[in-house]
Design a protein that fits this description.
By secondary structure, the chain is α/β, with parallel strands linked by helices. Helix content is 24%, strand content 25%.
Length: 269
């Protein structure tokens, strides 16, 4: 008899915001009627009775000031809103090593960091001599993660793996060489936390990818992989930076409106 599937509560926590023109979000010019199109910054967490798995760690106030982003809360404080103490977390998935996904790793002193081989290769290899490819990386984060490797706190993965019952890692190159999206089994089905495999819903819907990219062809193929992971149901795909996520999904409580949403329940669009 097959083992029952482990399911999780799954939350998206908004920790920062950036106002910008729509043209900053697409390789090709968007619909001319599109004007302002801000992005939000999230960390995610999957929780059940057996484990708590944090997905990405965000950035801090110093990085926000340096890059002109609005920091709403420290991601560790955001996790507290759903009862998660960063000091106690044992597993953190790093989807990729861009500044807005791997900052604050020092706030997780007990964690193992799960990372794709190709992402460390990318962030420490020959491509980083090109400013256009390194602009979204922070060298101190990369050096810091190398130090974590030497402390035996980084677990590397080579492609798609089942990390835990109900949680899978999936290599979706394009945005970076080693970006990984995450599948999480929930009460509504297998949710695909795309991270930056698709920043916005419209990157997928309009077949117009985000312009910070290592390989456009791989990014477009990655959109197809996201759809396949979701069994063709795009309602199960959660993009990495879209403010619409906060509109589509409910907050776990009225006091968390606009801050946290549940992704383990169907969207309300």
């Amino acid at each position: 008899m097959p083992e029952p599937v482990e399911t999780y509560e799954l939350y998206a926590i908004k920790y920062a915001h950036h106002d910008r023109d729509a043209r900053e979000n697409f390789v090709n010019d968007p619909d001319p009627h599109e004007g302002n199109m801000p992005i939000d910054y999230f960390v995610w967490v999957a929780i059940n009775k057996n484990r708590t798995v944090v997905i990405d760690t965000g950035f801090n106030a110093g990085t926000a000031a340096e890059r002109g982003r609005e920091l709403i809360c420290c991601p560790a404080e955001g996790l507290k809103m759903v009862g998660v103490d960063a000091n106690e977390v044992e597993d953190v998935i790093i989807t990729h090593l861009h500044y807005d996904h791997v900052g604050n790793f020092d706030l997780f002193p007990r964690a193992r960091f799960h990372l794709q081989d190709k992402e460390m290769q990318f962030a420490t290899g020959r491509y980083m001599k090109h400013k256009a490819l390194r602009v979204a990386f922070d060298v101190e984060h990369i050096v810091g993660m190398v130090r974590e490797v030497y402390k035996e706190r980084v677990e590397f993965h080579n492609g798609d793996v089942q990390l835990f019952p109900g949680i899978g890692l999936h290599l979706v190159s394009g945005h970076t060489l080693g970006l990984q999206s995450v599948t999480v089994e929930t009460q509504r089905g297998r949710v695909v936390v795309a991270s930056d495999a698709s920043h916005l819903y419209h990157n997928m819907w309009d077949q117009n990818p985000y312009p910070v990219v290592h390989n456009i062809g791989d990014m477009m193929e990655g959109h197809d992989k996201l759809r396949a992971l979701a069994g063709g149901n795009e309602d199960l795909i959660v993009p990495g930076h879209d403010p619409l996520v906060l509109d589509y999904y409910p907050a776990p409580s009225p006091d968390l409106e606009g801050k946290v949403v549940r992704l383990d329940v169907p969207p309300q669009k």
